[in-house]
## 1
Amino acid sequence: MQATMQAAPAPKGRLWAGRILSGLAVLFMLADAVMHILQPQPVVDAFNRLGYPIQLAVPLGIIVMVCVTLYALPRTSFLGALFLTGYLGGAVSSHVRIGDVPFNIAFPIIMATLIWVGLFLRDRRLPALLSAAR
């Protein structure tokens, strides 16, 4: 017997709120990925300050683009949210490591929250999954 969780449509207001929040998260994360790939001076300075070689900027940008794509697609949105949360957790860790707190850790935490709240509102499977875990 295979247990499947059907995604019932969310109420329209909740669905649109989730889409808007998720869309904002996607836009911010895509901007981050593009900035990594283009490597303007602020990105180079940030990599130097954090102690990372600039050669990692393009691979990180590509990784973020893949994660954002997974998040944007309904079938893989949960996986994308997990991967993006891991990426943002690494950003928090990098800033804490050099004592660059509290402002520079606030943005990744806010982004991760935005990602999960947006997913929670637009996908009925997540609330169902959380209530089944109780």
Note: Residues 12-133 form one domain.
## 2
Amino acid sequence: MGASLKKMKQQGQHVNQKDAKIKNLAKSVNFMPKLWKCPKCKREFAKTRQQHSCTIYDIDKHFAGKDYARKLFNFLVSEINKKVGKIKIESLPCCIHFVSNYTFGAAWALKDGIRIDFRLDHKIDTKKSYKVNHISANRYLYYLDIKNKKEIDSEFLTWIKEAYSQNAEG
């Protein structure tokens, strides 16, 4: 590890992950920048004082009267934890966030399944996504409705793993 990077890490300073050289070096030494923790809700963010809602929402409220959606959601989280990586779940009034180091996706409970979104840095050609938003030059937001466990297949988990990995890098 270079002397300046080592010093920055010891001081807990934020390293600009956009710089490819530092990013690659950081990956090679398993270094992530120090995240800012909101003093009120204790959620962590890449940017100091990042705008967010501190309202934490009981996850059971998302699934009230939607038992099937809850079972499917629990299966999805289990598959992600086993086959992609450990995640945190943040239940907010709007949706349920999937978080590695950063938020990489979200879920909504439906009567007959779950709606998922995730972000990738490239376009994928699939009919599984009912909606795609090109949100920036190198960022696409995909929406899928999952109606059964079979749809949480290796192709879907590959996309989730990419979203997880890309957002773990910042």
Note: The chain has two domains: 3-34, 59-168.
## 3
Amino acid sequence: MATQIAPPSVGRSILAVLAGIVVVFVLSLGTDQLLHMFQVYPPWGEPMHDPGLNALALSYRLVYGVVGGYVAAALAPRNPVRHAVILGVIGFVLSAVGAIGAIAMKAGPAWYPIALAVSALPCSWLGGVLYRNKAGAR
């Protein structure tokens, strides 16, 4: 029985999406850590109910979602926007699961994790489109 070997582009596609995920996580958690260290945010493990602080967290996460989509698109072997959209779908699923947990634990206002879930796909898509437009302009 012959085994099929996946084309090299499949592995590159997976790595492109994983790189986008890593970029979003590292940037988000790194910024969170800095804001905790400078005591802008309450200590880790304590709920954050202040709407202004949640809006701050959402604002940089929106930007990082676009950056992650851009990275996934830039590393994609082909169809850059498709890779960014796949990243966005994964981000939506992870954020939706996180939203369910955060709302159940009353870790802060419900709008924040819902906004993260709802914005995951559009932000990643935008990053992919920005990359495609930049690459097309060359």
Note: Residues 12-39+49-137 form one domain.
## 4
Amino acid sequence: MLLLNRFSSVLAQGTDWSARCQQNEVATIQGLECLFANVLQIITAGAGIIFFCMFILGGFQYMSSQGDAKGLANANTTLFNSAIGLIGMIGSYLILKLISDLTGIPELLRFQVPGGL
């Protein structure tokens, strides 16, 4: 049990949200921060996995087309769309980072619910 308590935050997630999202084991409105952060982590990881799978699929389509023009066009479309998706993900982060740097708002990339009344 001591070993489990020592690594419990590693097994659950990277950030210890228990102090921010609950008080006396009751969820608070700041729990939206935890929910948003967890959903964003899942979406980002899912998008990365989808990009990787689409890139592999496009490669297999390219290799198995055997010079067929229609097969090559499908493979190129798949590879192009996966690259556009990756560029879109990275670009959206960089645009938010640029806006944060230009406006001087350091917490623009962090979702935060204001504290209690």
Note: Confidence is low (pLDDT under 50) at residues 7-11.
